[in-house]
Amino acid sequence: MPLVLYYMPMSPYCRSVLLLARAVDVPLDLRTVNLMAGEQLKPEFVAINPQHTIPTLVDGDLILWESRAILTYLVGLYGKDKTLYPEDLKTRAKVDALLYFDSGTLMQRWRGVVHPVIKDGAPKPPEKGLEQFHEALGWLETSLSQHKGKFAAGTDGPTVADFALVAGVSTYEAAGFFDADKYPVISAWLERCKKTMPGYQELNADAAAKFGGFIQSKIKQ
Ligand SMILES: N[C@@H](CCC(=O)N[C@@H](CS)C(=O)NCC(=O)O)C(=O)O
């Protein structure tokens, strides 16, 4: 039985899972949940995921709805080797730290920029939110500077941390909130991800551009 993924292409969290699934070559039974139409609140979806978020992965009796947990689970199940989620403890600790940073800091601060505009109808992102978001991007720039020329955790190939981060950073770029000149190290890393990750354009770039355009359309000059 193929794994079922409830998703929507524009969601960065869903895109990280789609990219990783392609990298480990796992077939997914994809089921769209249209957030614009509020489909995540339908009783049949809430019965699967009471938190009504996507991505949600169903593998038999296992239901997972945290994208980064889905990434590590898919590598454990399907990764031919473990380079995507390295077994060496120190390297894995770096990968985990980046996953937690992405989830708990960077993406939260991005929400502080974009949610007021796309959810609450504010004409533009709050100054304070922007400041905090750029502070977090600055931390990512510093962190990646320690591993110049490589992937986020200092490995030669991408790990789950890169898959999680790239979905977000490409969205910031597409929405016009990422200035490559200000963050040259992140920018070079982003280009590396674009070239390395199978199906990048189809699975991530196109939908990031669409979501970025949607965000921009909500901002009033
Ligand atoms: N930490 C979660 C966040 C998931 C999330 O917030 N997804 C959004 C879409 S980008 C969602 O499903 N929102 C619908 C809702 O909260 O009702 C993850 O990484 O999976």
Attached small molecules: glutathione
Alpha-carbon distance between the two ends: 50 Å
Q: Name the helicity range.
A: 55-70%
Low-confidence stretches: none
**SS-based class:** alpha+beta
Could you say what the CATH topology of the largest domain is called? Answer: Glutathione S-transferase Yfyf (Class Pi), Chain A, domain 2
Mean pLDDT: 97
Strand order of the largest sheet: 2-1-3-4
Q: Could you say which overall geometry the principal axes of the C-alpha atoms support?
A: globular
Count of folded domains: 2
Gyration radius, to the nearest Å?
17 Å
Return the string of H and E elements. EHEHEEHHHHHH
Report the total helices: 8
Tell me how many strands there are: 4
Report the major sheet: 4 strands, mixed
CATH architecture of the largest domain: Up-down Bundle
CATH class designation of the largest domain: Mainly Alpha
Measured by DSSP, the beta-strand proportion falls in 5-15%
Write a structural description.
The chain has 8 helices and 4 strands. The chain has 221 residues and is of the alpha+beta class. The chain has 2 domains: 3-78, 3-Layer(aba) Sandwich (Glutaredoxin), CATH 3.40.30; 89-218, Glutathione S-transferase Yfyf (Class Pi), Chain A, domain 2 (Up-down Bundle), CATH 1.20.1050. It has a 4-stranded mixed beta sheet, with helices on one face. It starts with a strand and ends with a helix. The model has no long low-confidence stretch (mean pLDDT 97). It binds glutathione.
